[in-house]
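Lesson 9: reading folded outputs for more than one chain in a single document. The general rule is that every protein is listed as its sequence immediately followed by its structure tokens, and records are never interleaved. Here is the first one.
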Amino acid sequence: MELTAPTPVHLIHVEPDVNVARFYGVELQPTLFGEVSVLRTRGRVGTNGQAMMVTNDDAAQAGEALQKLEGQKHCRGNIPVSDQNRPSAVVDLSSGLPFVWVF
């Protein structure tokens, strides 16, 4: 099964004034039985966080779920890691999870 879905979504929410530094990720994963799972990861920046997987019957349903989750997170103030425009923050993706150093 080949997925034609968008790339994984990696979002971050940083508010140094209130000590908030969170990451959120959503991606699609094929299963061995021809289904598609939506893998959600979330947590505090610098930790492994938590993961949750929801399995859908086909890629279209999973893609819709991914877009819905991404929209909800954007409404709550999360921004894509690639659009991190803060001059005082450096995003490190070498470990696979977003980690932000705030100076």
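And here is the second record, again sequence then tokens.
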Amino acid sequence: MSILKIARMSDNPVDVPPADMILLVMAGAVARIDNMGADEPCGRFGARRIETGRIALNLREAGDGPLILLFHGITSNSAVFAPLMAQLSNRFTTIAVDQRGHGLSDKPDSGYDAHDYAEDIAGLIRTLDRGRAILVGHSLGARNSVTAAAKYPELVRSVVAIDFTPYIEEEVFDALEARVNAGDQLFSDVDAVEAYLANRYPNIPVPAIKVRAASAYHAVEGGLRPLASPTAMAQTARGLRADLVPAYRDVTKPVLIVRGGESKLVSADALAKTSRLRPDLPVVVVPGADHYVNEVSPEITLRAITNFLDA
């Protein structure tokens, strides 16, 4: 079987992780992963709310085995992880979480910095009482997962951090904050939501766009609005600018960094600086994927996660 190295797709003259720190993905093995489409029905997973003592969180759950918790990006929700859950639940207890301010979870008026999200993760792991957890996070969820692992290593087995690192440039956060705030709109119907999302996320496949449209909006007078609280989103977007270097410097649990080769959030330079900070952390760069790696390339994302966990 041939080996496909998932490596950086950039000509920028920046330092890259050592070759032995780049995870390998088996070419051909990806093609044999079945049912990885984003149209995986979210209804096949059990849904419930859980009170952690500090906040009530909405969960989607499937499978049995070691505990994996999945945390979405800003403005999103747990439904985006359905394709990964369908595969990972064959080996693991997989629980995707609506983070505070998002989806069907509680939306307090304040408390949206990294510390607040990390405390939610710690409280959830303790409440579930299923032992240490593997944390898989995308974007905001990656920031929160690494922060929680650095602060509470006794609760965490390992972390997969998808497309969020230290050293993200200020102009990138400016653009992100503008996009997030612009999402607080009234839409006439689901078709209007899908058209907006397709324009905002041009590389996300149509089935995944439909999942977002169906799961992240609710009916109000005059149409549909995002389930994510606009106040919470504004605070969260500002909080993403906080320095993540201490968490990455201090984390002692195994961490896999995954970056989309065409990501506009994590630049090649930001990744290189992160690798210089922590040269011991393995890196996967997914060619052709943008920031939304797990939705654009779910097969490669799955293979990267399972290779990392099996290593």
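What the second record shows: The radius of gyration is 18 Å.
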